[in-house]
Amino acid sequence: MPTITTKDGVEIFYKDWGSGQPIVFSHGWPLSSDDWDAQMMYFVTRGYRVVAHDRRGHGRSAQVADGHDMDHYADDLAAVTAHLDLKNAIHVGHSTGGGEVVHYIARHGESRVAKAAIISAVPPLMVQTTANPGGLPKKVFDDFQAQLAAGRSSFYRDIAAGPFYGYNRPGAKPSEAVIQNWWRQGMMGGAKAHYDGIVAFSQTDFTEDLKKINVPVLVMHGDDDQIVPYADSAPLSAKLLKNCTLKTYKSFPHGMPTTEAETINADLLAFFKS
């Protein structure tokens, strides 16, 4: 399996398919690069080079005990792009991956970056603070950690079968295959990485990162996102970005790159070509 080793000795697994302008995908918590199947297949057949890695502690990357924070996530992404010498790349991040993309661009600069898209993404800040009154109470994320520690297998099953894809909504038609694939990806990773990752995605404030970004950014979010609520995420990020297009999707869930891949892929392609 293709891997790179980071400066702090962590093996990171990645996929690198096709040729052409690179699109680099950053996945959500607690998943892996496999969560981008619908996008990678779509874009590799349309003349793009598609790259995706498993975040440290996730998927096929090393299950290390430490470094599960946005600085390390951004630096690991930078190590992958440098190893592959990617230039004029488009970065696409979903959920936690959206935070990773934003922090990577702000921390490592735009010399390799052409554009970015963040989907159902955690910026600017998920947790409720005095400066972010619309955020979710810290107890929500503390409970996430407690449930993970008590038994992540059933916890992951419940997330996938419920709020992640909106399968708990009236009239929804849950896909058992999609639910099982989410659970499979989650259980491939390390419990410690996922436990720490909850703090990383909920308590990192990306406000200053967003202000530093100059490249065009597409912000995509469903207004029925039960994981990263719409009102305290996408519109606020859009206001902080210098060169932003905000696309809001009526009734789409958090996991819309999977359940609404046809729409999301077409809109990404239009943005890439614009």
UniProtKB/TrEMBL annotation:
Gene3D superfamilies: alpha/beta hydrolase. GO terms for molecular function: hydrolase activity. SUPFAM superfamilies: alpha/beta-Hydrolases (SSF53474). Keywords: Hydrolase. Coiled coil: none annotated. The keyword Cell membrane does not apply. It holds the Pfam family Abhydrolase_1. InterPro entries: AB_hydrolase (IPR050471), AB_hydrolase_1 (IPR000073), AB_hydrolase_fold (IPR029058). It comes from the Bacteria. Residues 22-254 form the AB hydrolase-1 domain. Belongs to the AB hydrolase superfamily. Bacterial non-heme haloperoxidase / perhydrolase family. This is Alpha/beta hydrolase.
